[in-house]
Amino acid sequence: MPAARITCQEKKRAATAVRLLLAFLFLPSLGGCDFTLPWDQQYRLRFWERCRLQGERLYRARKLYLAERMYEEAVKQARLMGKYNFHLGVSLDGLGKTFVAQKEYDRARPFYQEALQVLQNALKVSKNELDRRLLMEDTARVCADLADTYLAEKKYAEAAPLYLKCVSLSKGCNTGAGSTPRDNLVGQNEALSLYKLGVMAQRERKFSDAENYYKQALATANASSSPAAIVERMMDGCSEALRAQGREQEAEDVYITRKWLAYTAAALEEYEGNNLRAAEALHKKALSEAEKLGSQDLHVSISLQNLATIYAGLDELPQAEDAAVKALEIRQTGISAEKLLTLLGELYMQTGRYREAEPILLRLISARQRKWGQDNIRVGDAVAHLALAYQRDGKADLAKEQAARAFKIYQPQCSKKSQFTTAQRELATTLLLLRDLDHAAIMNEQLVAMLTGDSVWQGRLSAAYLQLACIYREQHKEAQAKYASARARQLFNNIKPGWKVLEPVRVEFDLGSFYDQAGRPSEARQCYEKAVSDLESAEIAGRRANLLAATCLRQYAEFLKREGQIGACRHIEQLAAAHDSYKPLPPGIRNHLAEPPVKTMPR
Question: What global pTM score does this model have?
């Protein structure tokens, strides 16, 4: 619809508003200016930037008359900077947009054409690589804007070359250095140009050409992380082009994929809003659609991976494992396979299935080495997990070998808090259990340095101090051991009840194992009983936390059995079984300890 006519009085009011705004803009601070330029150029550049930004804000607010005046002032200032400069091209492009928004294509077109000429001439004389890339991006955008005016008036012969030029320039802007927000915007502009070429070809009944354009647009849109709504439009067009050629089955596959994408995008929104049950239901619908494409289709694997992530978040570990295994059978390589291997490895480690975790972790190490290199911290994390799995499975020699390898990877990179990972704590535990006290001390000291002052990691900081206290006692450093022990207990008492308590509790169980292996049962028993006491006074919620508690308690039960304390062993086994089944604990199970009952959060 044409824009409503603006009355003379409204124009006068708008002109007054513009004059006041310009008066304000004529008194800008020089913050952000390039002080290598003469003062008058600094001032003009700053004033131009303010006019352009204000014009853009007014355009977005649909105050088009005011936006037009701002862009006109920006064009006026840009012309004073030289004949061919990107400031002029950008300002003319913005001015053209205001006329397009008012459906005045004939008035918009000259500004777009001049902007295109200005930017092309600036591109010819520019020698700086970064400046050339930015000029190419601006030129591609103006080409697409000018082509849109021709498309709106159904002048396909004039629009098509401009869209093709936009595609060519967008490809030339690609740095090949990875995906950034700016690269994504360029890719989305390219994808939309290809889509509009497909639309024009379809309207001219060139269905084969339309199909090719739509498929190129989809590939570009997926590579540039385009919004799902744009991709769905492209898939609709592709489906229509295939049907027009009588290829019903291919068109149906595209339609199914479009429905799958809609369900997946909706599930992602629910997941980001922490509505996991709603996300699960939508991913199941997406999986149902994907299975129509074949049991080994890529979309099936993606849906299964998404479901595995949801189930892990819901602490439904058997379902998470099942979905991840099925997804991994379809996709053996790539980034998604690496994510699946990571998820499976974590599930097996959390549930104490160390033998099953070993081949998964070996594959994960190999995948990360190919992607990141031998000495990347991500490789170190996977190696540290493998070392712990070997140690838990009783393979001490292999555990020592992998622990030394992980330690070597971590040392050059362990000085920053941003480099902290859970695997570093696990490596410190592994080194302690392998009685490599010197390296275990170094790892724990680094953990203390990284985590001190961070309230989020109080449980892990307490765990590091506990391990340090044990190491210092073994090294006969009594003063340091006393301080580390007191600090660990102080931090533990400040932790709110919940899963964070499990960090130091797990270390207390590990220390019990450490003394047990060293043939010092009295010290082992003391560590185990302190861990059980701390565990019972905590509120442990979630399937994974209960599984960890059950694993630790079974370890204590085995110790009691070796010590011949069968009655106490049965009590601990019952406690472990209650945690393992994730049910409220039966009354009277803890009568052998003078501690308050566990407050188990209901499902």
Answer: 0.67
